[in-house]
Design a protein that fits this description.
By secondary structure, the protein is α+β, with helices and mostly antiparallel strands. It contains three helices and four strands. The chain is 30% helix and 27% strand.
Length: 109
C-alpha cells in the first residue's frame, strides 16, 4: 500500500467512525426499517473492521458489507469535489474532497 492509499484509509476511517467531515446518506430501504434498527446499522458501520484483500484491495477502507437481521447491508464512501458535482481529483487531499458515506440494503445497489 502506498502513502496515498494510507492517507485515504485514515481519512475514511476517521469519517466513518465519527460521522463527521462529510455527508452520511441512507437509502430508502434503510430508512424504512425501524429506527432502532437504523441506529444499530449505523453503529455497525462505525465499528466495521473486517477489511481484507478481497473487500479492500487498495487498503482505503471505503467499502464494507455485513448481515443484519436477515438483510445484507452495504456501505460505501465516495469522493466528490468541493461542490459535490464531480469525483474528487485527489481523495487524499481534504482541501479538494468531500466524502459521502452511503448505507444501503445490498439489493438496492
Amino acid at each position: 500500500m502506498n502513502n496515498e492509499h494510507l492517507k485515504i484509509q485514515k481519512l475514511n476511517d476517521s469519517f466513518r467512525t465519527s460521522l463527521s467531515g462529510g455527508k452520511v446518506m441512507i437509502t430508502k430501504g434503510i430508512s424504512l426499517l425501524p429506527p432502532d434498527d437504523v441506529n444499530n446499522i449505523i453503529k455497525q458501520v462505525q465499528n466495521f473492521n473486517s477489511f481484507n484483500k478481497s473487500n479492500d484491495p487498495y487498503g482505503e477502507h471505503d467499502f464494507g458489507a455485513f448481515d443484519f437481521k436477515g438483510n445484507r447491508i452495504f456501505w460505501k464512501i465516495d469522493y466528490y469535489d468541493t461542490e459535490y458535482l464531480f469525483y474528487s481529483i485527489n481523495p487524499a487531499n481534504e482541501e479538494c474532497t468531500n466524502r459521502v458515506l452511503t448505507i444501503m440494503l445490498a439489493d438496492e445497489y
